[in-house]
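Figure-free illustration: sequence to structure, shown twice.
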Amino acid sequence: MRILMVGAGATGGYFGGRMALADRDVTFLVRGKRKEQLQRDGLRIAGPAGEAVLSQPKLITAEELKSAGAFDVVIISVKAYSLESAMNDFAPAVGDNTVIVPILNGMRHLDTLAHRFGKEKVMGGSVRIVCDVEPDGVIRQMTKLDHMNFGEIDGTVTTRAQALHDTFAVPGITLVLSKDIIDTMWQKWWILSTMGAVCVLGGGNVGEIVATGEHGVAMALAVQDEAIAIATANSHPADAEFVKGHGHRMTEAGSTLTSSMYRDMTKGLPVEADHILGDLLARANGVKAPLLGAAYTHLKVYEGRRG
């Protein structure tokens, strides 16, 4: 099965790298500087399980992809604000039987992809991992999380979904073929929105925010309540036990946990303000969410300053 991984950053590099290390036929669609880095140094992963190196990853550019033929599956791992340009780049790889599995944040991209390529080609996908690309190109996995969920939008377990499961099932990936991927995506969305908003509003990691005292803790839990209320208003309530556990993680003294959105902001990079928080607020269905709104406003001011 020919797999095209669109993006070889932290998330795409990790999951595509794990598949390639297990002898799956993975090609990474990359651009300029990242391609040069991967050609020179290989794809390197470091984390709790140790280090792994894919010395000669298969790489392809958008121009080269025009003559490469159709792929069996296209996994999209780019930031939401890059989706439009990414679709133009990988479009030549989409044939009559190609399956598209996006592992982006939020939900809006499902409609965008369905409109461009047809809803029958698009599955849902969600990953849970905390990782980043270090300046030297190493993909640093910061916790043991390595979860990848995917499935048909309507929840059926089709022949193609099972075939993808068999292909994606490799060491280093905790894989689930979901019968309710939309709910899985919603659960990640409220978690991601909570972490992103808390770190943006607090201006630091979880431990730093908690160290400010009761107001920091109260803010974190109130943001979580707002995000869960919106998910519930969209018929995707959160599991009570999981909420309790997540609340503990959001208020853990000394925790260095942050969100990718906050890390991107501190580096002066673009952020997924509209796709993560803006779209969530647009689906509030009457739920009042002033703290999420404040975090979104903060991010929009940041984007305005970036120009």
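We now fold a second protein in the same way, so the two outputs can be compared directly.
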Amino acid sequence: MEKKDKNPEEFKKAFQECEKEREEYLNGWKRAKADFINYKKEEAERFGEFARLSNEGLISELTTVLDSFELGLAVVDSSSPAHKGMLLIRNQLEDLLRKYGLEKITVKPGESFDSTRHEAVGEVESKEKPGAVAEEVEKGYILNGKVVKPARVKLSRTT
């Protein structure tokens, strides 16, 4: 049938069908666009989480290097150039790690033992109340609010 043979009602019906089809395509396109936007957001979050976990592993391992610097600084004569050089390098490393969210766990003699931040490695006689932290043996670290290495401490015992 040619166009001139169709009556106005047939044209109206065909037009409505085209409108309906157009609306279905448009809605499908909108859903696909929203799905794609959500996918991009989820992928960005997954990538960010992957990067954060990768950094966390590396930074956690570098705390061992900081501990080694502490041990080295304790045995090298504080007036020697080697001590000063080691101190500068340690400070530089600490500054770098701080930029990535690493902070030291502060330990004070007499504070209550906290198993989420401390690891007890022994007991010593001390003037502190029994079970309280008497001394720090090894530094602990927190990375972005999460304990990556608990502070190793000795607890006070009754004399």
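Summary for the second example: The chain has two domains: 1-100, 101-159.
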